[in-house]
Amino acid sequence: RRPHGPLQRYYGPSTAEAAEAAPDPTDINGPHFDPEVFMTKVRNECPLGQLLAREAALGREIRALDSDMQTLLYENYNKFISATDTIRKMKVDFRHMEAEMDDLAANMAAISASSARVSAALQDRHRRGAQLAGVQALLRKLQALVEVPGRLRCWAGTEPARALRCHARARAVLRHYRHLPSFRAIEDESHAIMADLARRLRTRLRCEKLDPKELTECVEMLLQLEEPAEELSEEFLSQAGARLEAELAALEAELPAADPSGAATTPPPPASDILDFVDRGSSAFVGTLCQLAGSYRTLFGEDTGRLEPFAAALATRYFELLERRLALERGLGDTSLLVRALDRFHRRLRALLELLPAGADAAAAVVARAARERVDRYLRALQTFFLGCLGDVRQALAAPRPPGKEGPGLPDLLATLAASVLGQLKAVLAYVQLFTARDVAFASLPYFKGEFCVTAVREGLVVAFVRWLCRTARGFADGPAERGAPAAPPALLLLLARLCLDYENSTISYILTLTDEQFPPLDSGPAVTPGPALCAEARAAAQRLLDHYVQVQGAAVAQMLRKSVETRDWLGTVEPRNVRAVMKRVVEDITAIDVQVGQLFEEGVRRAQSSDSSRRAFSVYSSSRAPGRYAPSYTPSAPMDTHLLSNIQKLFSERIDIFSPVEFNKVSVLTGIIKISLKTLLECVRLRTLGRFGLQQVQVDGHYLQLYLWRFASDERVVQGLLDEVAASAAHRCLDPVPMEHSVVELICERG
């Protein structure tokens, strides 16, 4: 550690140690040691004995250091001697190098002087060379100017563009030195050659059919020859118009010619599909028009006063041809093909519309009309499909059934009809959605973002179809005879009523929600038909159909009763022994109607029945009077009393509305049919004159109907009240009103 201390003091502490250690003036081995501070601290802090010990220790350290230094000197003596010799030799070599450097500097000075002389000579030679090159260049230019007429004459016939470039380079020089006779002669000869070239270019422009590139080059050269731009623009448009007219004529040749007589004939199918037609029109006409319009702007600047009406007239003709071709797409065909064709048409027109923005509205109108026309065709296709489904349903209802084999029931027919129509509508919406797909360019137009979704699809397709369906269904009840069509079968009326009711309950809301999801309307778009309004129309159609079904079925049963009353001799009839067959048929028909209606409608709510409904006595006087009380006192002088009592009974009984609207349940429907049937029976009995046995037959028939019809009605009092009125009218119209015993009536009805 002792040798390390002096070396450390010589080299100093390391950077890290110096950074970490704080400066201490009392550290005898530190770099900041201060003897005065150290001695002051030692005298103040150490006693005398410690001071003496410290002095002895320092003396020993000093002697040890002197010994170490002597040892180091002895060990390195030879090295010090060698280093001294080396330094002496280096000094001698350095003096020799200084002498050589002085000689080298002298030589460099001499070389610099020589270089300066050489540089001056080179500059003088370069200056003379530049003057000589200038003279040579001037001679070459003069030679080129002399050769200009010959070159122009040589190139004017074969390479007019090269001749124009040559003349453009020489024109400024010739014009500048025109005051010299030689230069003026060269200029005059050049002008004559260029004038002849201009005449040939004019002739070519007027007489030849040039493609767009050749036309542009020809007009550009004439402009370089300083021909009038006004005349050249007219000739450019004339030549371009002829070429574009030929393109339009080629497109029109693919379309069938219109009938000059104006007769409505079906044109033959086109030779190619709409996509091929649009491709040819886009590549030929639209591409050429874009190229010519761009060339016109390049040649004549931004002055488009002639170009815009010229291009607008041709574009209008092209749009008309495209619409004529679109009109030939009479069937639905492949909607994706139509969308691709319209998308390609719209994309190819973008370049033209950038040059002529005035045609954007017309192009968008073509696409919009094509989309609307396809939506209208889908609406007609949906209507045709629905009518076809109705025809299938009618055929299934009217088809004869082999014995022991039943056909499809009304629930199956209804489910098939509803599922088919809804599936077809969803398929149509999927096809129409192709017009608003993200990869379709024209879908970004404002029309397809707002008006198309609302006016064309939601209102023009979905809402229009639902309303047409309701009107068509209602038309079966509002007068089929006026339309020249046969009357609809009652089962079809019932099925359509249930279909419209299902539309009101769930289908309409589902269809509108699906449409709004696939074709979202804008918040600021046109007004839409609310769902509740459509549901109200569907419910009204269902109500009208169900009411008409009740009237038709009631009229059928009433017709049997009317004929049975009108064709019978009620004065000369024999004593009744059986229920008439027509009454049994009435009960059978009502039972069949009950089964039919129960397939599509719920049971409904009945008023609480009395315990003896099926056993209730049927009186020929009134339901409020016992049969035995007035019968013994009945004499021919008493008809007025019986009629008076019947009228008084009507005043206090509940009025029965025969043709009131029915509810959407089985009980209400059957009640309406029974009311119509019994009301007809009542009116027919009022018009007949009866004998005693005729009255008793009416009594037996009425009791039989009472036994079976009460269970079909919503309120048995309706059946009882109408049958009581029938009995009272029969008694009133009877010449010998002697009723049959109730027990006998019951026996006959049970046996029947």
Automatic annotation (TrEMBL):
Involved in retrograde transport from early and late endosomes to the late Golgi. The GARP complex is required for the maintenance of protein retrieval from endosomes to the TGN, acid hydrolase sorting, lysosome function, endosomal cholesterol traffic and autophagy. Acts as component of the EARP complex that is involved in endocytic recycling. Keywords: Endosome, Golgi apparatus, Lipid transport, Protein transport, Transport. InterPro entries: Vps51. Component of the Golgi-associated retrograde protein (GARP) complex. Component of the endosome-associated retrograde protein (EARP) complex. It comes from Zosterops hypoxanthus. It is found in: Golgi apparatus, trans-Golgi network; Recycling endosome. This is Vacuolar protein sorting-associated protein 51 homolog. Residues 1-26 are annotated as: Disordered. It comes from the Eukaryota. The keyword Membrane does not apply. It holds the Pfam family VPS51_Exo84_N. GO terms for cellular component: cytosol; EARP complex; GARP complex; membrane. Its main location: Golgi. PANTHER family: VACUOLAR PROTEIN SORTING-ASSOCIATED PROTEIN 51 HOMOLOG. Belongs to the VPS51 family. Residues 15-26 have a biased composition (Low complexity). One of its GO terms (biological process) is protein transport.
